[in-house]
Specification:
- The structure is a single chain.
- The chain is α/β, with parallel strands linked by helices.
- It has one domain (2-276): TIM Barrel.
- It is built from twelve helices and ten strands.
- The protein has helices spanning 2-9, 39-49, 61-65, 101-107, 124-144, 158-161, 170-182, 200-205, 221-233, 243-246, 251-264, 268-276, and strands at 17-21, 53-56, 74-78, 80-82, 95-97, 112-119, 148-154, 187-190, 211-214, 238-241.
- The strands form two sheets. It has an eight-stranded parallel barrel, surrounded by seven helices. Strands 4-5 form a two-stranded antiparallel ribbon.
- Helix 2 (39-49) packs parallel to helix 11 and helix 4 packs across helix 5 (124-144).
Length: 277
């Protein structure tokens, strides 16, 4: 049954996936709300552009699923919430799973669930909470045939950049990706490495589990398109971008450009022309 849902996530022609993450409001950070203050409108704009999936929370998935027709993007349901993203961390940290996550995913007609696997400097207890979440989710995922996307996320020190900046050290990313696979991930959503030319090592260590690459912080159009091309060349099975879509001046145009790269092999210049038209 998982294969049936994964068929809704991955494009039938390219067998790749472009998932737009719009679940940022779950994490109680004011800076995350740029571009999605009116989430219903943001979802409608992105959905019209036609990515393969949109990542949302239990409280906001309705805005996608109420859209009429058979061809809207698939839902990826965020199943855990954490308070680990600020530059100054609170006294008590958590990473909590929503109640009955798989049942809620089924009720919302999701194609996949997403759960974090944090590695935060000096905060091993948060990593432990993530592992416990995944261990509980795995048998439930298998029982009801709901694919589990695990998001191994390597943090830089929070006081340096806040918890949303990627640590691109492959020596940290590669073992965390492998741990996600060992824990039973059906799909991996992983950080890009600083040196994109070695990303094939991340793909290799995933052992055939499809790897979708996170977008990270907001960058220029050319930079995100160049990075996307390089990651696809290294064997990535797709991308999961958030702020580079929702905070873009033309979210529909950048979505179309990235879809062209992921599924149709557009060059960087060809994709950039779609954005600049």
């Amino acid at each position: 049954m998982k294969a049936f849902r994964l068929n809704r996530l991955f494009h039938p022609r390219s067998r790749r996936c472009f998932d737009v993450a719009i679940d940022h409001g779950f994490f109680n950070e004011h800076s995350f709300l740029g571009g999605i203050e009116n989430l219903e409108r943001a979802i409608a704009v992105v959905a019209e552009a036609g990515p393969d999936a949109i990542q949302l929370t239990v409280g906001q998935a309705r805005h996608l699923q109420k859209l009429p027709g058979r061809f809207k993007p698939s839902l990826v349901l965020r199943t855990d919430v954490a308070n680990v993203y600020g530059k100054v961390l609170p006294r008590s940290l958590y990473s909590l799973m929503i109640d009955h996550p798989v049942e809620q995913a089924v009720q919302l007609d999701a194609a996949c669930m997403c759960v974090n696997l944090f590695q935060i400097p000096g905060q091993p207890e948060v990593g432990q909470a993530c592992v416990e979440n995944i261990l509980r989710l795995k048998p439930l995922s298998d029982r009801l045939g709901m694919p589990m996307m695990v998001e191994p996320l390597v943090f830089q020190p929070n006081e340096k950049a806040g918890g949303y900046m990627v640590d691109g050290d492959e020596k940290k990313i590669i073992p965390l990706v492998r741990q996600a696979v060992e824990l039973g991930a059906d799909v991996i959503k992983a950080d890009p490495t600083d040196d994109v030319s070695i990303y094939h090592k991340v793909i290799e260590v995933a052992g055939g589990v499809p790897v979708l690459v996170r977008g990270g912080g907001k960058v220029s159009d050319r930079e995100i398109l160049q990075r996307t091309a390089a990651l696809l060349e290294q064997g990535a099975s797709g991308i999961v971008y958030g702020r580079n879509i929702i905070q873009h001046a033309k979210p529909a145009a950048i979505t179309e450009a990235l879809m062209g790269m992921v599924h149709d092999g557009l060059t960087v210049d060809q994709a950039l022309a779609l954005v600049e038209t």
